[in-house]
Amino acid sequence: MNRLDARTEALTSVSTSDPRISALENQLKEAAVEIAELRARDALKTQFLANISHDLRTPLTAVITHAEILRDGILGELSPRQMESVRGIISGGRQLLNQVGEILAYARGAANQLTVVPSRFAMRDVLEQVSGLNESLLKKKRIALTVEADDGVPVVDADREKIAHVIGNLLGNAIEFTPPEGRVWLRARRGSAPGVTDGPESIVVEVGDSGPGIAPEHHDLIFREFAQVDSTPSRQHHGTGLGLTIARKLVELHGGKIWVESELGQGSRFFFTVPLRQPD
Q1: CB under 8 Å to 274, separation ≥6 — which residues?
Q2: What is the pTM of this model?
Q3: Which of 182, 163, 173 is nearest to 254 (CA)?
Q4: Average pLDDT of the residues in 127-153
């Protein structure tokens, strides 16, 4: 037996005879089992969220549809007080349906079930489409909206529905947090994320507002799952806390980046990039 074999045998005998090492090995095995169980539970939780969110959409849509039938007078004229109640049902139902949709999108993203279905479209068309969908809310709060796209912004090859979802989420937040008679804006230009010099050519979309702004120490927090800057029960703005998490997921699916520039009292500007050349 040479010297190396003798040393190996000695180390082996120590590891099998030393109770501390044996206890450590047992703890590692137990930890591995616990981690596997936690992963399995997390997968079940994600599947449950997807299933229950999908099942909730059908009855919620039915409630909204029947309320809209009443609102439109198809079953007879309503009194002013009845009309006000029906409109409240529709508004609350749509808000709840949007939250269920966010949970469903989050569950699909967590289960890696989100895919990109690219098509060619002009980014300005999507900006105007999303702004049109929010026209009534803008009028209600008397908020001015401007839409701008540089002449040099080319047609992009991306998932139009998912890009519209990101813009709609950011614009919805901007409108919600901007006080009445404020202003919000949508802009698109060629560019790249900060610090990116060798990445693919991209389009930068900006969604800005004249709202209260976000403290720098909260810039990372707002993109985390279920996180909200104001998490108290008496907070003014309610939601699932998943909107920006989903937006980040959809942007990263396209190979882009999303970030915020904001300070308290200075409004907020959210940016995300859409590479002109999509990853495989």
Answers
A1: 123, 156, 158, 163, 202, 203, 205, 251, 254, 256
A2: 0.67
A3: 163
A4: 91
C-alpha distances in Å from residue 136, one per residue of 86, 144, 158, 201, 226:
18, 12, 28, 35, 28
Residue 83 one-letter amino acid: M
Q: Name the nearest CA neighbour of 176 among 225, 264, 217, 235.
A: 235
CA distance 243 to 173: 9
Give the model confidence (pLDDT) of 195-217 as tens digits: 776 667 899 999 999 999 999 99
The CA distance from 62 to 102, in Å, is 19
Confidence of residue 231 (pLDDT cuts 50, 70, 90): very low
50-55 long-range Cβ contacts below 8 angstroms, 24+ apart:
50/104, 50/107, 50/108, 50/111, 50/113, 53/100, 53/101, 53/103, 53/104, 53/107, 54/104
Largest CA distance in the chain: 101
Check: CB of residue 169 under 8 Å from CB of residue 244: yes
Q: How far is CA 264 from CA 25, 186, 211, 214, 261, in A?
A: 51, 21, 9, 5, 11
The CA distance from 204 to 191, in Å, is 6
Residue whose tokens read 């992009």: 156
- Residue whose structure tokens are 């790249």: 192
Structure tokens that stand for 232 in this block: 């108290």
